Amino acid sequence: MKNKWMKGLALSGITSIAAACGATGEGSPEESVESTAEAVSACACANGADQRGTPIPASATYCGFRVCGGDHKDYECTGSGWSAVAGSSCGYGACRCTGGSDDQGRPIDPSATECGYRVCGGDHQFYTCQSSGWTGTGLSCSSSGSSSGAVCVSAQVGAYCGNDNVQNGVASTLYQCPGAGQAPTSSQVCGNGCTVAPTGTADFCAGGGTSGSCSAAGQAALAWEASQLAAGHSYSNLCLGFVEGAYHAANVWPTWLSGVDAVASMTQAEQRAGFVPWSGSCPCGAVIYWPACSLNGNDGHVAICNGDGTASTSGWPGYAGATHASIASLSSAECGLPPVGYLVP
Q1: DSSP letter, residue 338
Q2: CA angle 233, 310, 198 (to 5 degrees)
């Protein structure tokens, strides 16, 4: 069994370390990958009927299943029963989807489908009926009530591809495992496949995720950082120097990648026309900033986005850095604060 200990690095054991970036470092992130998936628990919704008045057996429902109701609103099956989807409108014949079946192979009656109708597909992701047909959402699901029907094998907490220490997993899906014998807490369908990383590093979605592919400069910068980390050069406490050196190696010399710490660099970056406030994702090669807080010595943090929900980051005492650290976990280490935003060099 692989010992991916870095995937389960506990935040509680290190967040007491005073930290600064560009000067002294910061608390360590848990090496896991943020999922865009919905956590799925057991659900069964009784007394439902679709827009035609056809009863829906409770046995055919599960968490996240959506159907068009008689009042022309979509309803979702939740742990507390049927819940109207705010702002939804359906039942006017604008959508009709054929050829569908759920993850247990049960065919979907096209006459039951309407705009917003949602079902768990055979690849364990939700599909929504739209005017153009069935559309994948990337949200993990299971009609049997567990997260994708998968079971974690490794005792080490962290992110695993479906073919790496996950029983009944889908190879192209990334699972967040809480421990051996437990269902994943969440999962993400990887559009470009899932990469099984070497021991000590979290598995991750391959390619640029949904945020686009890297420019040549971005690829070169990330490759330089990966080579430095692989050689044992963690740039401990020097996150700004790590990012600046990466883009210098790519022959790109942004003047805003200068200053005494990450906050000073961020102040310059925010004045640039291309600076994008954080909204949940960043493209590959973007320089991403976190604000000052007590756990980073009020110096902030800076890293380079991979475009798949992770970032390449330098190290600090007790942590050697990582090529694919979860942005969510980095935020947890930064006093629970989200990134401020990013700028693409």
Answers
A1: P
A2: 55
Reported for 265-269, long-range contacts at CB under 8 A and 24+ positions apart, including other chains, are 265/240, 265/289, 265/302, 266/291, 266/300, 266/302, 266/340, 269/341, 269/343
If one counts every other C-beta atom within 10 angstroms of the C-beta of residue 274, the result is 10
> What's the rounded Cα separation, in Å, for the pair 66 and 117?
5
Sketch out the chain's domains with CATH numbers: 5-36+209-343 (3.90.1720.10), 48-140 (no CATH), 150-205 (no CATH)
What are the tens digits of pLDDT across the range 273-296? 999 999 888 888 999 999 998 878
User: DSSP assignment of 115-170, as one string?
Assistant: TT-EEE-TTSEEEEEETTEEEEEEEE--TTSSGGG-EE--SS-EEEETTSSEET--
Calpha distance 287→32 (Å, rounded): 20
Per-residue pLDDT tens over the stretch 33-89: 333 233 333 578 889 888 888 898 888 888 778 888 889 888 888 767 888 876 678
CB 25 within 8 A of CB 236: yes
Six token digits for residue 191: 């559009």
Beta carbons within 8 Å of 120's beta carbon, 6+ residues apart: 62, 64, 65, 102, 103, 126, 127, 141, 142, 143
* Both tokens assigned to 30: 């848990």
